[in-house]
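[INFO] parsing input record for Amino acid permease
[DEBUG] input buffer:
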Amino acid sequence: MSDKSGVSYTRVDQSYFQKRGLRRYAGVWSLWALGVGAVISGHFSGWNLGLANGWGSMFIAAIVIAIMYLGLTFSLAEMSPALPHTGAAYSFARSAMGPWGGFVTGLSENVEYVLTPAVIVFFIGSYMGSIFGTPSEYQPLWWIGFYAVFIWLNVIGVELSFKVTLVVTLLALSCLIVFWISAFPHIDFNRWAMNVGPANIELPEGNGPFLPNGWLGVLACLPFAVWLFLAIEQLPLAAEESVDPKRDMPKGIIAGMFTLIVSAFMILWLNPATAGVGSFALGTSGEPLLDGFKALYGENIAKLLALVAVVGLVASFHTIIFAMGRQVYSLSRAGYFLPWLSITHGQRKTPYVAMLGGSALALVVMMALWFIFGEEKGGAVIGGTLLNMAVFGAMFSYFMQALSFILLRKNLPHIERPYRSPLGVPGALLTMLIAAVTLYYQLTGDPAYTLGVLWVAAFFAVGIIYFALFGRHHLILSPEEEFAMQEREKKLAH
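[DEBUG] output buffer:
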C-alpha cells in the first residue's frame, strides 16, 4: 500500500496490535502530576544561571518563556483530545505535514526524551555520591541503579507508575512550598536580589539596576528560563492511557501549566531575595534551592537538605522515563523506528522494550563520555553538551508542534475539537517566534551548545538516511497513521 508522499505501508494482522496494547488508567490528577513532575526539577536548579545577567533580566525572560509555553500548552490542549494518540508531537505533525514532517518532529522529540533523563540521573548521582560519600569513580553505579529502579516502576504497571508520579510530584512541590514559607520572613529584595551590576559584577550593598546588561541580558536569559517549564509538553504522550482523553487531557495540561507558573515565579522571587543568598551567588550555583535552605537553617543539616533536592530530580527522572517509553513506542509501532521496540508487556501492558532500549542508549552515551573524557571532563560534557542537545530537540519540536496546530486549523477544520485554544493561531505563532529566538541565542551564547547542535545534526542525518532508504517503505497503519490517511482521503474527496 503506497502513499503519494513516497511512503508505503506494510499490512499487519490484529495480533500485531495485541502485542502492543496499552491500559487506560490516568485521570485529570494523574495527568497533572505527569506534566508537573516532568518539569519540577528545573525549579530546584538550572534556571538560576540566568541571574548572572541580573534579576530583572531573568524576570522578563521568564515572562516571555511563560508566554511561549502558554501558547504551546493551549495548542496541545486543543490537539491532544482531537488526536488522542500516544504519538503526541509526531502524531500532530504527521496529520498536519505528512510522514516526513511527522518523522522529523518525532526525531527531535526523541533527542529530548532520551537525553534529558540521562542528564537528570547524572545530577542525581552527584548528589547521592555527596550524601553517602561514595568515590567519584563509582558514579556510573548510581546511574545504573536509578535507571534500574525507575524502569522497573514504570514497567510493573501503569497504575503504580502514575501513583509514584503523583507521590513524588507532591513531595517535590511540598519541598518548594516549605522553602517559600521559610524564606518569606527573611527576604530583603533590594539588598540581595538586586545585587548584580553592569558587566555581571557584584554590588555588595544591592540596589542595582533592573536590567544591568540592558535588553541583551534579557535575551541571554531566555535559555535558562526554559528550565522553569521544560517537558510539560510530554503530557499528551499519555493519551492512550488516559481514561477519557477528550475530557481530561485539556484539564490536566492547563492545570499543570498554571501550577508551574505559580511555582516558577515564587522561586524566582524568593530564592534570590533570601538574606545571605542573592542573585550574584545564585548566578553560578549548581544547587540554588540548597543554598537557600542552608542560609535559612545552617550547614549542619546539609545532607538532609541534599535529599530534598534529590526529590525534585527523582520526580522529573521518573516521569520523563515514562514519556521516553511512550515516545519510542509510538514511532516504532508505526514503523518509523524498528517495530519490535513497540512490544508491550503481556500482563502489564507497558512498553518495556521501548523504555529498556531508550535507557540503554542513554547509558551507553553517558558511559562512553565518562570513560573517554575522564571523570571531570566527562561529567562536564554530560551536564553541558547532552543538556544542550536535549534543549535543542525540545525547542525544535515546539516550533514544529505550533506549526502543526496552525496547519491543522487550516487543513482539517472539520475534525471534532472538544477543546479550542483561546489563544488560537496568534498564540501558536508567538510560540514559534519565541522558540526560534531562544534557539538563536542558545547557538550564539554558548560554545558547548554549538557542539551539542552538531551532534544532534549528525543524529538527524543518520535518522533521515535510515528513513529514506528503509523506514518509509515499511510503515504500519497504527491509529495515528490511519487517522491521517483517512483525513487526507476525505479532503481529496471534497
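[INFO] The chain has a mean pLDDT of 92.
[INFO] shutting down worker
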